[in-house]
């Protein structure tokens, strides 16, 4: 005679109760010999929390029937298993959320992956600043209070040809501060072709209104003439502003007014011209075969009264916003209360100075400035690295995928010329099984992200692509070794 449904449920409840009763008490686990090294490493509170979390999860699983098929002889809730699960939980819980990854996206200055990587000299300076007191705002000559900008402004002026300089948290802050200090309740004239959105919610019109400045748009999206600027100038005008088209290009029937044309008009009306350069390189990149970007020095020489640019884009330094230009304008900017709110910390200054010093020896720049070294790596280097990694990758992905070495194009990133310009090479993995490849590629891309040091690639043209430009030789062994841990 078969059991009724009610009897079956009662039986299950009894066995579930018996099963849960085998779970060792929290007190026993925490007092066990195995728990002592965990307590020494993580502290009693965290270990207790982790044990409880393990047991709660198991109770839930048992009630949901997930453990139903467990072989009863193996003691699903043995002390050993509780400890093992607790160890895993503690490791997971205490792992840093900000983790190193392999940037194989092909974008060198990847905003989401932290932009510029810093040279050793900067790393050493940051370690010192972190662990020892420093003369951040202390004038060693007079023994009096100093200004943190003094540590670095003359170096910035030397490298840019500007009269004065100041540094804030990032370039968005630099633009906000500049507009707040010079154009509050006044008008700023900007061409419609330069009303940029950078991404991450930086939009020129929005920053303008936050700064209390009135945007005076002129011209059209594709064409703006000098006479448009001229017609817009009135008694309320504070500033003429140009914004570098960092992440887009307007081509075809176009006209924009160059700085050397605009500056004389501004001077005639006694108005300053500000240029938001975005990336703002300090050296001519064309000498290394890279796309030409306007340098800060050339922009100053062409008549800009103020120039703003980022520290962690082509400059290759820490996140920062640099403002250079005429002395009296910089002085006004530095006096604004927002300067105090947007100022940089000592870690930024510590990192920025040695990076700027590299520019004083331009003949070594390509080798020593990490960003430039990565941008100028020849494709053959990446191709050779890809060949070396190929067997390990093919083994890791198995027969369902086919890995190969192929040429590809890297990008500079962070808005410096948005088109593919840097010939590179890397690993390409296609799905070799039957049916559509979409899911299989997503699965592989995720498995790469789940490696101990996540590998970030991209899916394009029906393949997972790993551009090896940013995998320098010192990191190659680690990259290849962990491929064995890929779980597909
Ligand atoms: C990148 C960029 C910004 C923002 O700079 P952050 O340093 O990211 O704040 C502003 N303007 C332009 C033209 C840019 O390219």
Structure description:
- With about 500 residues, the protein is of the alpha/beta class.
- It folds into 3 domains: about 90 residues, no CATH class; about 120 residues, Alpha-Beta Complex (Aspartate Aminotransferase, domain 1), CATH 3.90.1150.110; about 250 residues, Aspartate Aminotransferase, domain 2.
- About 45% of the residues lie in helices and about 15% in strands.
- It has 20 helices and 15 strands.
- Helix 3 crosses helix 4.
- The longest helix is centred in the N-terminal third of the chain and has 20 residues.
- The chain starts with a helix and ends in a 6-residue tail after the last helix.
- About 40% of the residues are buried.
- The site of pyridoxal-5'-phosphate has 16 residues, from helix 8 and strand 8.
- Pyridoxal-5'-phosphate binds next to helix 8 and strand 8.
Give keywords.
488 residues; alpha/beta; 43% helix; globular; binds pyridoxal-5'-phosphate; SelA-like; selenium; PyrdxlP-dep_Trfase_major; protein biosynthesis
Task: Summarize the SSE layout with pairings.
Blueprint: H1 5-21, H2 26-31, H3 35-42, H4 44-63, H5 79-94, E1 102-103, H6 120-131, H7 153-160, E2 164-168, H8 171-183, E3 187-191, E4 197-199, E5 202-203, H9 204-210, E6 214-218, H10 226-232, E7 237-243, H11 259-268, E8 273-278, H12 296-301, E9 306-310, E10 321-325, H13 327-335, H14 337-342, H15 346-358, H16 365-368, H17 370-375, H18 379-397, E11 401-410, E12 422-431, H19 438-449, E13 455-456, E14 458-460, E15 463-467, H20 473-482
Parallel strand pairs: 1-13, 3-6, 3-7, 7-8, 8-9
Antiparallel strand pairs: 2-10, 4-5, 9-10, 11-12, 12-15, 14-15
Helix pairs in contact: 3-4, 4-5, 6-15, 8-13, 18-20
The structure holds pyridoxal-5'-phosphate.
């Amino acid at each position: 005679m078969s059991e009724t449904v009610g009897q079956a449920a009662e039986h299950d409840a009894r066995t579930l109760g018996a099963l849960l009763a085998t779970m060792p008490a929290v007190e026993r686990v925490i007092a066990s010999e195995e728990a002592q090294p965990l307590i020494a490493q993580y502290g009693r509170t965290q270990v207790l929390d982790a044990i409880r979390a393990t047991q709660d999860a198991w109770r839930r699983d048992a009630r949901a029937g997930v453990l139903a098929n467990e072989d009863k002889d193996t003691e699903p809730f043995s002390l050993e298993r509780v400890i093992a699960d607790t160890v895993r939980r503690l490791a997971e819980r205490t792992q840093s959320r900000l983790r190193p990854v392999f940037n194989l996206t092909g974008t060198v200055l990847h905003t989401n992956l932290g932009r510029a990587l810093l040279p050793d000299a900067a790393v050493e300076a940051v370690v010192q600043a972190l662990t020892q007191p420093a003369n951040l705002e202390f004038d060693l000559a007079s023994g009096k209070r100093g200004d943190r900008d003094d540590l670095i402004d003359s170096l910035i002026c030397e490298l840019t040809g500007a009269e004065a300089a100041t540094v804030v948290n990032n370039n968005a802050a630099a633009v906000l501060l500049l507009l707040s200090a010079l154009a509050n309740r006044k008008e700023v004239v900007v061409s419609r072709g330069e009303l940029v959105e950078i991404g991450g919610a930086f939009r020129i019109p929005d920053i303008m209104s936050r700064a209390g400045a009135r945007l005076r748009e002129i011209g059209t999206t594709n064409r703006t003439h000098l006479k448009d600027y001229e017609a817009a100038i009135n008694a309320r005008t504070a500033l003429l502003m140009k914004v570098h088209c960092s992440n887009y290009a307007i081509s075809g029937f176009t006209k924009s007014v160059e700085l050397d044309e605009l500056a004389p008009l501004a001077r005639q009306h006694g108005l300053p011209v500000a240029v938001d350069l975005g990336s703002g390189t300090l050296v001519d990149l064309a000498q290394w075969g890279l796309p030409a970007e306007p340098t800060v020095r050339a922009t100053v020489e062409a008549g800009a009264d103020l120039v703003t640019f980022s520290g962690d884009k082509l400059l290759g330094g820490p996140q920062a916003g640099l403002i250079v230009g005429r002395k009296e304008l910089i002085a006004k900017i530095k006096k604004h209360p927002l300067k105090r709110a947007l100022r940089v910390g000592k870690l930024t200054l510590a990192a920025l100075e040695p990076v700027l010093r590299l520019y004083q020896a331009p003949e070594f720049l390509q080798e020593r400035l990490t960003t430039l070294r990565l941008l100028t790596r020849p494709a053959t280097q990446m191709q050779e690295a890809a060949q070396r990694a190929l067997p390990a990758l093919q083994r890791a992905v198995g027969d369902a995928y086919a890995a190969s070495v192929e040429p590809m194009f890297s990008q500079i990133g962070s808005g410096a010329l948005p088109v593919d310009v840097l010939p590179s090479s890397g690993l390409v993995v296609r799905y070799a099984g039957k049916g559509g490849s979409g899911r299989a590629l997503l699965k592989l891309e995720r498995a790469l992200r789940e490696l101990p040091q996540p590998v970030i690639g991209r899916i394009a043209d029906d393949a997972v692509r790993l551009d090896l430009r940013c995998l320098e030789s010192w990191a190659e062994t680690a990259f290849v070794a962990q491929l064995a841990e890929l779980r597909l």
